[in-house]
Design goal:
Two copies of one chain form a homodimer. Chain A is mostly helical. Chain A contains five helices and two strands. The relative contact order of chain A is 0.08. Chain A binds a DNA duplex through helix 2.
Chain lengths: 132, 132
DNA sequence: AGAAAAGTTGACGTGCGCGTAAGCGTAACG
DNA sequence: CGTTACGCTTACGCGCACGTCAACTTTTCT
């Protein structure tokens, strides 16, 4: 709890994941905890990445998708050529997310409409008697 | 192509899925094609449901989640008690989707910001010479 | 009629995202 | 100083969402 380094358990409690999950993410090169002897210590950077991972999952991205996305967040530590490519990928991803955002809006409107219709139906049916 | 019924191949071409997928969805009670002899014929209703299934998947919902969601779209064919419950579930789902919508917006803004920063870095580095 | 095309039912295989023991090291506590 | 707790690795298992044969019936075309 040096405020800089967190043990695996502290991470689990903080983000509601299991140790297995964190080790799994490390094996997939999504996280890079440092080692104090044998034990893992997760840095602030790992915490930031984990937040992005969990968010990505909620949007339906695969871990491999997310791994690539994560690179977009330390743009600057790279060679120029690689960076150009990374930015291109990032822009594509951004477009995808915008489409998804729009589609979600449509879905919300549709479901909202269905609910309204349902409520009306219910009101009218309920006015007299429910299946008397 | 009676415009009402579609064969499995027509469905596959129309929605870019495999026969296996459609049969799988039927086995999971997400679709209910009628049978003409042995063959499946998909109705307009199946097509509407398939669209919702594919959309749900893009949002990261499981097929089981989606199966439950689909019921929300034929509200009205139910008993009153069941309908009340369905509406309640629908409202919860709607809230969840609104949260996701909001979170996606945040993510979009963040990634957008990262890209801008990256572009700046690239511009400055590119002005002189790339890693000379 | 005969062959190719399309569809059907099993049933096993596969990649992803972890769960779940098994067995071992170590460090912290009473 | 033993034991309890936490952590590590290795490895097999599992549920989901299909992919991929295999073997067979049914149309459809010529």
């Amino acid at each position: 709890m040096t405020d800089e380094m967190m043990t695996i358990r502290e991470m689990c409690d903080a983000y509601e994941v299991t140790p297995r999950t964190l080790r799994f993410y490390e094996s997939k090169e999504l996280l890079f905890p440092v080692r104090k002897g044998q034990k893992r210590l997760f840095t602030r950077r790992d915490r930031a990445r984990l937040k992005l991972i969990l968010r990505g999952k909620r949007f339906g991205f695969s871990l491999e998708d997310i791994r690539q996305l994560l690179d977009l967040y330390h743009i600057g530590d790279q060679q120029r050529t690689q960076m150009v490519r990374t930015l291109a990928v990032a822009r594509e991803r951004l477009e995808e997310m915008r489409r998804q955002h729009q589609e979600l809006e449509t879905a919300i409107e549709e479901l909202s409409q269905q609910i309204s219709t349902g409520e009306e139906t219910l009101a009218k049916a309920g006015a007299s008697q429910p299946k008397a």
